[in-house]
Each structure stands twice: as C-alpha cells, then as structure tokens.
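Hey,

Quick one before I head out. I ran the complex with magnesium ion overnight. Inputs first:
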Amino acid sequence: MAITREQVLHVAALARLELSDEEVDRFTEQLGAILDAVSKVSELDLSDVEPLSHPLDLVNVWAEDVSRPSLPLAAALANAPESEDDHFRVPPTGTAA
Amino acid sequence: MIDTLRLTAEDAMGLLERGEVSAAELRGAYFDAIRERDGELHCYLRLVEDAPGEGVPIALKDIIGTEGVETTAGSKILAGYVPVYDSTVAARCKAAGLSLLGKTNTDEFAMGSSTENSAFGPSHNPWDPTRVPGGSGGGSAAAVAAGLAPWALGSDTGGSIKQPASLCGIVGLRPTYGTVSRYGIVAFASSLDQVGPTTKTVRDCALLYRVIAGRDPCDSTTVEVPPVELPEAEDLAGLRIGIPRELNEAEGIEPGVAAAVRHAIDLAQSLGAEVEECSLPRSVEYGLACYYIIAPAEASSNLARYDGVRYGFRAEGAGFEEQVELTRDEGFGDEPKRRIMLGAYALSAGYYEAYYGQAQKVRRVIADEHAALFERYDLLLSPTSPTVAFELGEKTANPLAMYLSDVLTIPANMAGLPGLSIPCGLSEGLPVGLQLVGPQLSENLLFRAGHALERAIGFDYVPERLR
Amino acid sequence: MTGSWEPVIGLEIHVQLKTRTKMFCRCESGFGAGANTHTCPICLGHPGSLPVPNAKAVEWTIKLGLALGCEIADHAIFHRKHYPYPDLAKGYQISQYDVPLCANGRFVVPGSDGDNEIGIVRAHLEEDAAKSVHVGGAGGRIGGAAHTLIDYNRGGTPLVEIVTQPDLHSADDAKRFLQLLRQTVVELGISDAEMEKGVLRADANVSVRPRGSDELRTRTELKNMNSFSFIARGIDAEIARQIAVWESGAEVVQQTYDYDPDTDTLTPRRTKEEAEDYRYLPDPDLVPIEPPAELVERLRAELPEAPGARIRRLEPELDLELAEGLVTTGRDRLYERTPGDRRAVANVVMNQLAAAGVDPEVVDGEQLGKLVEARERIPRAAFVEALAHAGEPGFEAERYLGEASVADVDELGPLVAEVLAAHPDEVAAYRGGKQGLLGFFVGQVMQRTEGKADAKIVNELLRNALG
Ligand SMILES: [Mg+2]
Ligand SMILES: [Zn+2]
C-alpha cells in the first residue's frame, strides 16, 4: 500500500480535514490505489527535462499602481457566516496571527 | 410554436432579428421545456426567472460566478454563496445581450466525469435517463441536448466540456488555455481550467466562442485571440489529419465507439483530407498519472480558502482550527477530499520532487510530443471518450475507473491545446463523439474542420426518445 | 557581557511598501481606514478571483535589492505558501521561494573597528496578511466569549522580505544594521519604515557559540519585534538566556517566540507541526517576472549614496557616533550644506534644530551657517528664536544678529508681555480675528521704548505671542 493510515492523518491535518475513522479507512485504501497508479510518472528518467508549470510562455504581466473602487462594506461582509463591528468574526485562534 | 429541441442558437438569433419571436417568448419556450423535462433530467441547480438581455438566452455551469445569483460549484461548502461580482465570461455574455436562464449542475468543484459528485444530486442523460450525461459539465451538456437551453458554457480541466458533449451527442469546445478568462470561475486546477461552449452545432460553438474569448486584464494568464471566423466550407481539402495510434487504440475503447470514429475518418478522407496514422508514445501512457498529480496539487491549494470565515458553509466548532476542520469535513464531498489530500501529499515535504516535480517534467514531454506532431499535421483526430454514456452508479465506488473516462482528453489539456468534440454516430443507441485537437490558437481551423465533418456525418442531435 | 561566548544573529525583515494600491488587487492600501472598507473579491479570497501584480511594487523591490547590493534575477516567479491562519484569505500567501527577485547582496555597516559587511541572502516580494484582533474571554479587552475579529484592509499589502546571513554578533550590531536599513528604505521613497506602526518588522534568529569556534548551535527565533529598543533588549535577553542554558550543562531547544508589545515580553509560540509544511506551489495564476535590463539599469542610476558610505565620509571631520547620528536621522545633507565649524554645525543640526522641530530638508544652509557662527555672541533667546524660524521661506539670519535688534529681543520680550497683559480685550478681539489690532499693539510697545525698537522684530514677537 502506497500510503499508511498515519500519512493519511498527516495530510488530512495539512488539508485541515477532521476525518471520521470510517473516512480514514476508506481514504487510506482509495488514496493508496490512486498513488500506486500515479507513481507511474517515476518510470521515466527525466533528469534532463525542464519542468513545465504553465502551458503559456507569458512574462511580465502586471498592472499600474492605480486604485479601483473597493467593495462597499456591506458587500464585503454580505456572505460572512458571522460578523461583528464591521469585522469577520471567528472563534478564538490557538495561534496568535 | 418554438421547438427548442431542434432550434439552434443561430436559428434563434434569426428569429429574433426578423422579429418573428420576442426575447421574452424565446425565454418562455425554454422555461416551458424546463418545466416539462428538467424534473427528470435535473440539469439546472437554479433558474433565473427574470434576467436582462434581448438576445439568445444561455445557461451557465454553476462553476461560473454570477453577481447576485447563488454560485455553488456543486458543493455544500458554497451553499448560499452569492457572488458580489460577475465572472468576466458572465459579464461578456450580459454585454452581448445573452440572458441567463439558470445555473447548471456540475460535479463538485468540477471534479468528476458523471455529475454524480454534485452535492445536489446527479443529472441524467437525455438519451437514456438511467445513464450519466458525463461530467463535470453534465448539466450544461444535457440541458442543450434536451432543448432546455439553446447553448451553454461549461469548464474543462481534464475533459469536463468535451466528454459530456460526447456522451450527450452535442458539440463542445475546450479552447486554447489562456483564450478565455478564468476571472470569476471557481478554481479547480488553475493551469488547466478553461471555460468553453457546449452547443448543438459547430457554428453555434464559433458564435459563442466569439462572445467569450479574448485577453482580460483581470486574468494575467490570458492572451490576445485572433478574430473568430464562422465556418462555411464543407470540404477538408488540403488538411493534414494525424490519427494518434495510442488515442485511437487505447484499451477500454468500446468497439462501437471505435467503429463510429473510423467511419468519420473515412468521411474526412472523402472530403479531401490527407489522413495518416501517427503516434503519441508517452502522452497517453503517462498523461493520466501526470494529470492526477498536477490537478489535485493545484486543487488542494485552490480549495484551501474554504474555511467558513468570509463566505459559504460553516460548521460550529470550539476554536478556529477545530471549526475549520469540521467545516471542511462536512462541507466537502468525498472527491474533493480525495483530491485535496492527494494534492497535499504530492506537495508535502519530501514528496514534492517525486510527484509534483516529476509530473511537471512529464507535462513538458507531453507538450513536446504534441508540438512535434503539429510539424506534420494540422489536426489530430480520436474518440473523445472511450465509452458511450454509462449507467448511474456504475463507477461511483471506484474512483480510478471514473478517472479513466478522461484518458483521451487529458493529453491535449496538459499541453494547453484546443479540442473540439462533435457527435459522429451512435453505439447501442447512444451518442459517440470524436475529438479534433489542434495547435494553440487554432480554433478557427477546428471550427472549419468540425463544421465540414458535421455536415458530412449528418448526426441528428435530438435524442431519439424525445423526437 | 557575553564573555567567552559569541552571539550569532541573523535577521529577517519585512518592509511594507507604500504603493498606492495593494500587491495583487487595486484596492487602496487601507491604513487607518474603517475595518474591511479597503477590500475586494481578490483580497478577500473570493472564489474565482485572480491576482494581478502591482508593477510599482516590483520596481521598488528591484530598487531596494540594488541598494542592498543584490543580484537581480533575470527570471523570478511567485509561489504559494500555505499555512492555516484566518488572516490569510486564500489559505496561502503569495510569496517567492527558490527564485526571488533579489539575492546575494551585501550591506555595509560602518563600525568602530572597520566596516561590518552583512550578507543579504535574499530580498523578495510577497503580500501581507490581514489583521486579527483577539477579544473577549479572560484577559480580553472586551467582555463576552473569547473570539477573533478580522479586518482584511491590510491583507494583500506589498511586503519586501529581507533575509540576512547570520553575520551579526551583538544586539547593538543588529540595531545599527536595522537603523541603516530603515534609513535606506526611507531615502528610496518606497516605505515610511515606521517600526512602531509595524511598517517595518524584524525577526531575529539568535544562537551563541564558544568564541573562536565556527559551529552553528541551535537557534531560537524572536518574531515581530517592532521597536529598535526592544530588538536590542530582546536579543540581549535571549543571548543571556542561551548562555545560561549552555553553561548549566543543558541544551538550547529550537523555539519561536512572539514579541508582545503590550506586555513587552516574548512568549513561546504554539504551533501545530503541520503548520510548518508550507507546500510551496508555483502560483499558476501568475506568470514569471523577467526584469528588463534597461529598467534595472535606470533604477541603479537613481540610487542615492549609501548611508554607510556617507557615515564613513563624515567620520573623519566628526566621529563615528555623530556621523552615524546625522545619517540615520536624515540630517547629514543639511549638515553638509551648512558652512562653519564642523562639530558645532553637527551639534546644532543634531540637537537644537531637532529640538526646535524644524524639518532639516527645507533649511537654507548658508543662513544656518551664519547663525551657528554667531551663536556664541548673541543671547540664547535670540539664537533659539532664530532657529525656530530657520525653516521658513526667505529666512535671513542677519535680522537676528544686529546689536540693536539683539538688545531689543532681550528687552522687548517682557515689554510685549506687559502690553498684552494690559489690554486683554484687544488681545481677545485680535485672536477673534481682528488682525487689524496688531498695529495698535505695535504702537503701545513703541511708546514704551520711545520708538527705539526695530518694528520688524516687535511685529514678529507680537505675532508669536498672539498667534
Ligand atoms: Mg515573509
Ligand atoms: Zn482588494
């Protein structure tokens, strides 16, 4: 199996997913099978090949430093599950930002 | 009486121009059809009763952001999210007078090949409602095939426009990467996502592509696009068409599919095209593996923003960290979870080079192989999907089997190349699609070839059971 | 006193650029604005939004890189750096990773025992996070359940991150490096670099080793220090702590401390180990930056003389401390254009003129020189009075130097006070706007001096007293 239960729990934490035990079992098996399949890329020796991160070869696309109107406050907060005093509100964070 | 099953968008334009019907009557006709058939097919997630626009109406895949109209990407985690801005394509449709009929069903975050991954239930194939319409853009494809929209927009990452078009017997274009703005399109895999038309005819496809294509200052990865030409010619004189062996003889291609495509190849020859077998040795063999590393890696990053803070679904949790983990576990379905974890794994410390780094090199190999073929050929031809529409539930238990649905569309997508799928016949009473692939920015050539083949094939895009 | 131990210190500095708009959207940078009033779909990380880089920020980063003696990359890209904070709208920060805009620089800090050359590992461009305020609960500023409020105004502001080699060997080295760096940034006109406002933030990596050895021992990180005085105190304290740990036979453990300006203390940071795996991904929404050679050369030509070089130039005629003081407070230019005894000029510019709150940039050096030259002869009051006006357009020192006038200044002070005390109603009326009354007061003073006083000075003294 290409991935262990512990590794699944680790990537779940990286991905900020709180998985149920049933999910951990199921995903361990499914991800294992998928990883076996995609590991096929390692068959090729491509040490001398340039990676391609983008299908286009554009460079230097940028905008002038000229401001455009921001959203009205109401629109900025419109979709917020919870807001307070014009801020987005969330439960206390364990890590000081 | 308007027959929305037959009416092409081009026909509809004519009716409007000649004042034979009003825009309101036209919308009315489609809403009648929707009331009649969408209960069974479930193409739409949301209808928009009164939308502005005096032109031909349009349906948009729910991955396309629309100001003031809920946009969920088929996911519970975006339920209730109402964009405060229009995607560039939605804005261009508005500007062209195309009035919005509604938002169509999609696999969650466009991850899937059957729409069965939609959090809001699957869509059904108008040719046989016990079968899938393909995906992720199954809602748009089924809506056009069933006369519930004159035309629609989808988005294609691994094959989500071409494969559903093929399974529903209509035309679908995945444009050259960078020709259609991604601004406002809910992102799945940014280096692959591309919006494009699903239509009844190739000319409709060209007309709609003309509306949405072009450089957008809001999307750094867009390019200038040559003027779009409406295809007229009915021959393929002087066209060199390559038939990649690996795409036409891949294991899993159903005999009926192969036969329909072979018939189309013969027609192409009789229309004056030089046809020759050629090879993409590594693109097909390694394309799927390459795709299922790169797409999930980008997806895991693009979906990191869904934390229930600024928009969308939120689960209750004691602290912020717990709340986010619960929100994402309850908000995402299995497929996004699989891909997010797969991507996080492929990018995580110690694995990057073996997976993501290596996949990027394979991607270069695939691009180079295609570039080499376009030295000798104007276009490549193959089936779009190895199979015709499959039964609902047939592949849901086996993600890998589902992934194979895109094995023939993925190689061109990895290289950022445009691909046009047109219907080329039936197999077991279900539509078969062929895929034409050209070099970057060769859309006009694809339209010309697609149009000529379409005429010669004479496929009837109205599902038999609805005729 | 570090005795037989040598501190080894590296700095990581974040400088907020004062561009008009943010790094990847065109919202105005939102300092001091109402919470979340400078936000848009891009800096709120809404689905489908895409970044477009700020050209000015790129240019300024290159400029700073050149000032730090860096090589400018001919090909740089942006990466996504993933970590799970609520003030990161997209779940990742757009930053630079293995190909930054600027690298391999050296920055000279003159020291009493020769030049101190600090290696610059890199200077790269990234976006700032939003601001979160923790409120409620025990010890919170507001009552009620503990929670966090987020303001995305700061989110997306351009930041340059500068990383030094561990070339600093005392808290004082670090402080003086930062003061020179701050002055450089201010003179380039790319940031106000005010530490108190968090516009310039410094993290320090601190370790100690036995003097003479070149090993690198376990280091600790001091984060978000926002005042020069704290940096000195914080680093000194950490050095002492580590020496004590080693000398007690124990081991220093890798740890990150956050500086809390409210309590002026370092608190160990709580982080999940996952948070440290950033899963860097080349941002597929952005294209590479390849700075045109002519742009780089233009920026190089615009660079002012480096502060370090200026200190060395002034040192012989003054001393290191005074020269450094003049340069790091931006007063050396006035010093250089003011003739006269160097030390005297330096002291006046550094002390009295600063005390008078006069902007050195607008002072006429020639005139200031005359004042400095005369300052022993003329009464303090007159000298101070003159300095207070030294920044005014058309300021002339003579007016304050003539004997009669000089006498006047001393005697006139009390007289003016007398006159004003004697006419409270007129004073009130004048302050109420009846400026015409000035003549009346002048008359009164003239009477009391039998017309001997210099009307110009009387006028001026009155205006000051009344104004
Ligand atoms: Mg940084
Ligand atoms: Zn913004």
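Chain A has three helices and two strands.

Talk tomorrow,
K.
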